[in-house]
Amino acid sequence: MTERIEGHGGELALAALRAYGVREMFTLSGGHVFPLYDAAHKGGFPIYDVRHEQSAVFAAEAVAKLQRRPGLAVLTAGPGVTNGISGLTSAYFNASPVLVLGGRAPQFRWGSGSLQEMDHLPLVAPVTKHAETVFSPDDIPRAVTSALTTALTPHRGPVFLDFPLEAVFSVSDAELPALPGIAPVEPDPDEMAKAATLVAAASRPVIIAGSDVYAGDAVDALRAAAEALQVPVFANGMGRGALPPEHPLAFAKARRTALKGADVVVVIGTPLDFRLSFGDFGDAQVVHVVDAPSQRAGHVQPAAAPAGDLRLILTALADHPGDRADHAGWIAELRSAEDAAKARDAEEMAAETDPIRPARVYGELRKVLARDAITIGDGGDFVSYAGKFLEPAQPGTWLDPGPYGCLGTGMGYAMGARVSHPDRQICVLMGDGAAGFSLMDVESLARQKLPVVIVVGNNGIWGLEKHPMRAMYGYDVAADLQPELRYDQVVSALGGAGETVAKAGDLGPALRRAFDAGVPYLVNVLTDPADAYPRSSNLA
Ligand SMILES: Cc1ncc(C[n+]2csc(CCOP(=O)(O)OP(=O)(O)O)c2C)c(N)n1
Ligand SMILES: [Mg+2]
Question: Which residue among 43, 64, 267, 469 is least crowded, i.e. fewest CB within 10 A of its CB?
């Protein structure tokens, strides 16, 4: 059923956004987008504002990733849009359904040199699934509905619309289109059967589950497939926590042993990129399960590559009627490697060193984090340690920047996470270098009463760059930061609070104070600059 609506361009856009379940906007002010504010303000639609457009897009992305619904950022024309491009690109790499609505200089005098007159589309087209200028107000509901459908259709991703000034300011009436509904992509049954037969017959299979397993709401189907075929499961990105850490098939630390020994590696819902040695697992056969045919790898030839709705594919794996090899010995072997690695980790996480090493920060943090806490990583080595030592207990609780590896997600992701989950712990793990990109947005968080905890691993350097550069050249440049800088005082000045911790024994009480503070609170941990995250490649 369609409905007719009347209003200015902002009101027409908002009606379509609401109909699709968009529940808030993230923005930084600019006259070109005032009608969107006017509609939101009059309609009781929440507006969260930020101090840099990158934070608006990252906040929208956090909403999209955590809640599996569209996240919205509204950016003013020209510099507003260009400041959002790293966020859009991250969303593109992460397949996050983000909608960016941009202002745009007036069309009727295009070419005469209006303020911020530029065509955004050639800039955003390569990092969006769809980018369009909507020239007429009565076309806005159609454009918004269709853009959101594109964003939510697997393989998901960001979309962009801009509205010339006169289109968004003028009044019109328009049809509000009915929601089209997104049909599941039907996978090819032969490819599914091939995959199931391979996994069932394997002696030492391994599953690696990535972000699309969560995004595609396929967590239960993953668990059913793993249990039915008795396959150990590792995870990355938003897939982390898909199986709770205490599940007999959940593994995290024995990855090297697993990938070295496996005869079949099943990679589900994540690309065969640098994080997975480009899909090269030695002699093991690769099964690549993707949510759309476009996601099949071009650089490797997997033994099977079913593409389509992940729930359907994983359910078909679980229901595989043929014989299954027994994997009990393989699982036991991995479990003992996992337990040994856990014991080593536990020692590192308890170490009483001076200066503090990052491992101890995570040892203490684990004692105060609730099972449903959202943890956000923004930084270099300090965040690599977070990935190693934190164990997300539920899916949809771990936000990393993803394969685009963009520093600066911190406060934007924190804002999106707090808005998504008003009652949970939100904890940002930040390098001191990363802090420089977004810390000013603590002001936005404090002013809008969005408390979060920020733990800075303050080693006084761009650690992930300094150590490799020294290893490569014997010297380093452009890799130092001011040592022992009081990032906690920055946060206090911006309306939050915080403290600096230099002794391992003081970490626990400081973290407890942070979670009780009720305002943005930064724990500035002075960590050992000599400590480098061990990597097999210097350019990881
Ligand atoms: C926007 C952006 N600029 C630069 C980089 C390159 N880079 C990756 S990690 C890193 C160092 C991060 O330093 P810090 O946040 O202090 O964490 P540490 O490694 O010291 O723990 C840099 C500069 C990047 N990934 N993204
Ligand atoms: Mg650092």
Answer: 43
What are the residues facing 75 on neighbouring strands? 102
Give which of 32, 37, 16 is closest to 107, Cα–Cα: 32
Q: What are phi and psi of 370, to 5 degrees?
A: -75, 165
Percent helix, percent strand, percent coil in the chain, to nearest 5: 45, 20, 40
Decide: 459 in ligand 1 pocket, CB within 6 A. yes
d(CA 529, CA 424): 32
Residues 175 and 138: their CA atoms lie apart, in Å, by 8
Evaluate whether 268 touches 222 at the Cβ level (below 8 Å).
yes
* Any atom of ligand 1 within 6 Å of the Cβ of 531: no
Q: Is the CB of 358 under 6 A from ligand 1?
A: no
Which bound ligand lies closest to the C-alpha atom of 535?
A: 1
Q: How many residues does the chain have?
A: 540
Three-class secondary structure of residue 143 per DSSP = helix
Count of beta carbons in the 10 Å neighbourhood of residue 432: 28
Which residue, 57, 66, 68, 91, is CA-closest to 21? 68
Q: DSSP for 145-160?
A: HHHHHHHHSSSP--EE
* 212-243 pLDDT, tens digit each: 999 999 999 999 999 999 999 999 999 999 99
Q: How far is CA 15 from CA 30, 163, 166, in A?
A: 21, 16, 19
d(CA 338, CA 234): 11
Question: Is-above-0.85 flag for pTM?
Answer: yes
Both structure tokens of 76: 């003013």
